[in-house]
Description:
six-stranded mixed sheet
Amino acid sequence: MSLNCGIIGLTNTGKTTIFNCMSNTKAQSSNYAFSATKSNIGIVNVPDPRLYKLDDLVKSEKVIPATVEIVDVPGLAKGASEGEGVGNKFLADIQQTDAIIHVLRCFDDENLAHIEGSVDPVRDLEIVDFELQVRDLDLIVRKIERLEKLTKSGDKDAKKGVAALLKYKAHLENFGNARTAPVDDGDEFYIKDMQLLTEKTVLYVCNVDDTSVTFDNDYVKKVKEFLGENENVIVVAGELEAEISELEDEDDRLEFLTDAGLEEPGVNRLVRAAYDALNLQSFFTAGPKEVRAWTIKKGMKAPEASGVIHSDLERGFIRAEVIKYDDFIKYGSEQAVKESGNFHVEGKNYIVDDGDVMHIRFNV
């Protein structure tokens, strides 16, 4: 299982700078609007110090963290759905993603012109939301037209589908997002295959200047007030993060972070927030060849989790040998854990916990 996130925002918000901080693929950023001609795709390692603590004990040949795929689409503009700018052409690139990272400009810079003439992150948020709503509305209308043809032949399910989609249509027409539509249980089934942009989980990133990294500036306060407490808002200083990401020495990075008043890079918090928002967690495998993190949904049972490693493990699952991460660190080895009585053998109904160190027994 892999996690995919798409980065969106108005042009010149600094989203490509943040993409470069996160990704192993470096995209070209520019002060000029609409200079990008393609979406950028990169892979981000999920920060998890537990992996390296396990490796200190296991002494494996390599450490493999879980990863996130990030898609950075060109900057949007007001009227994108009607052909303005270039970003709307690439929105299809993020329809396959699990979540959206919406970057909002929360800094002043006289050398970086704002496409709307002034800095106002709440206005920018509403502009981008509107462009996504227009795209989703078009998809909804098309599906309603297809289902209405089926209703004429007496298809009862199609009739239910039309009724459900009309609720989404009305909500989108009133500038609402699909994820907040007042629908009944079961109505979501009829949009499941549509990959609506406004139905996806959204993480809002307030991109601030270096001086605002340790407190909420006025722009950030306005965003948080507008969105309310239930939304995921992360504050990141993109330019500062870019400088940190260019440092190869870990000690230099730590010193830079300390000087800035930070304990860790903001992009680390962003990736973890994406994990949490999507109800994801990691389990580990640890041996002489590798220590590795695997991404699964919370509540997943052992056979399904083992299928993330390889389908044969799920198909031929016999049992899972489980050591809790804290026990592994406390006792220092698998043998010591066994001697302590904290080694567990679990069957098909075992629900995997975050941080479980597992060895899967299977037969195919």
